Amino acid sequence: MGVLTWVADPGPARWDEAKARIIGAEAPGVFDTRYAGLSLGDIVPGRWFRAESGDEVVGFGWMDVNWGDAEILLATAPPHRGRGVGSFVLEQLRDEAQARGLRYVTNVVRPTHPESKRVIQWLEKRGFRAGEDGRHFRAVSRPSVPPPPA
Fold first, then answer.
1. pLDDT by residue (tens digit) across 17-53?
2. DSSP per-residue letters across 11-49
3. What are the tens digits of pLDDT across the range 134-147?
4. Which distant-in-sequence residues (6+ apart) come within 8 Å of 65 by Cβ?
5. What is the pTM of this model?
6. Cα 98 to the chain's mean position, in Å?
7. CA–CA separation, 110 and 71 (whole Å)
8. CA triplet 85, 28, 47: central angle to 5 degrees?
């Protein structure tokens, strides 16, 4: 796999072939039902980003702001799992949250997710802590502010 690039979907974001291939093809229970039954071209809420390797979309990140925190979703195309795409997407989403002055990134691991334990372990290795209702959160680190000139 080549160098990964991060591309923001222009708003409003739309359900497209790449989203259908990566997100729409996930096993039942991975995501909530908001993506079921979408047609190509339908508007999808939130801010969408894609990870590309060359001209191929290999992953997605989604972010919505809720009470000063970033709720995130990430997905990697099956052939590219285990190659760092998910970690890349996660760090890019953290950077997006930081640029917006948000406090935390949160991710919900649904109890219906067929690999929930593995996903939770993956998140915990990346600094997430368990919250309530399947939410996992990680503080968005703030860049240190230099002291004012003397």
1. 999 999 988 877 787 677 888 899 999 988 999 999 9
2. SSPB--HHHHHHTTTSPTTSS-GGGTT--TT-B--SEEE
3. 789 999 976 554 55
4. 71, 100, 102
5. 0.87
6. 14
7. 14
8. 50
